[in-house]
Amino acid sequence: xTLIIENDTRRYIRDLARILTELYRYEGYDVYYRAxxxxxxxxxxxxxxxxxxxxxxxxxxTSKGIVVGYADAWVMDxxxxxxxxVIVDPILPEPLYxxxxxxxxxxxxxxxxxxxxxxxxxxxxxxxxxxxxHITLESMLGGSLTQVDSxxxxxxxxxxxxxxxxxxxxxxxxxxxxxxxVRELVEVVNDAFSIYPxxxxxxxxxxxxxxxxxxxxxxxxxxIIVLRNKDTSEIAGITxxxxxxxxxxxxxxxxxxxxxxxxxxxxxxxxxxxSRASAxxxxxxxxxxxxxxxxxxxRMYEKLGFSxxxxxxxxxxPLEAVxxx
Length: 325
Ligand SMILES: CC(C)(COP(=O)(O)OP(=O)(O)OC[C@H]1O[C@@H](n2cnc3c(N)ncnc32)[C@H](O)[C@@H]1OP(=O)(O)O)[C@@H](O)C(=O)NCCC(=O)NCCS
What we know:
Blueprint: E1 2-5, H1 13-26, H2 38-46, E2 56-61, E3 67-75, E4 82-88, H3 96-115, E5 122-128, H4 132-141, E6 146-156, E7 169-174, H5 179-193, H6 204-214, E8 222-229, E9 235-245, E10 251-260, H7 269-284, E11 288-293, H8 298-303, E12 306-317, H9 319-323
Parallel strand pairs: 4-5, 10-11
Antiparallel strand pairs: 1-2, 2-3, 3-4, 5-12, 6-11, 6-12, 7-8, 8-9, 9-10
Helix pairs in contact: 5-6
Bound molecules: coenzyme A (COA).
């Protein structure tokens, strides 16, 4: 195994797409999601989203020159001070898998230490709970690790009634928002999510980039349902929906975002938006409807007929534990 520090992501983007496809199949995510394409990965790396803007990236190669693992490390103020993500091809046999994982993790820890030793503890993205990645982290870092609930993938199993739109709002379906609407959407999202203390605010630039990617898809594959106050025309709530063709040939609908401005919460708008999303997706022929829920919204989704199917985890560890692997 050779570790290569390579920040020109174009060089290994195809390898990364292949590894992610393997990972989605191995961990059973491909029933719910499609792995990102090379074009989507390129666009994420180019985007201004801090989730895709690492300090440094590295890959590991086998002696035959095949890339089998990828890692990146970030320092993000306030939000997630020091953050590491390691992705290793899950079909690698032992001890190669653990060896590749350990060398990427050590490299990422040293990178964080080089940039800022005060980022402590650090957060490592572990994927699905009890995935190969999570189990490997547990066995390497043992007692020094704390598990953090980082969200739940939930599948809709009920039948959402289609309530009458709450009287104060009118509904619009937007297929491609211009700059003014994106500015409004950013404001609504930041207002809605500000109820969570660790919310990382969205900027116009990140949102613009995100919507450019989404609307780069074929027409009709991504849309936003907007509820505007009939009197003031301010946006009260939004939901964004898309769908994917899965490896097995079906269609999975995905609620990419749901947000209701604080002043309008608990008045049935969230429920109405979800029922509309579900109705639109069913018309397209979607068989499953899923979403990623933040831990705080899980109860609400359960009330609405969603069931948890898998849990995403992050782990927190002292930087020293990673440096001493
Ligand atoms: C989650 C959110 C969209 C809900 O919107 P809302 O318009 O307030 O929800 P509704 O009024 O339609 O409520 C729907 C149901 O969930 C329940 N509910 C709403 N908020 C809840 C909460 N915080 N905890 C528990 N239940 C809740 C309601 O009681 C209602 O159930 P009922 O019909 O049995 O009474 C809104 O609170 C929000 O924008 N939150 C911040 C962003 C967020 O968490 N988005 C989802 C991320 S995955």
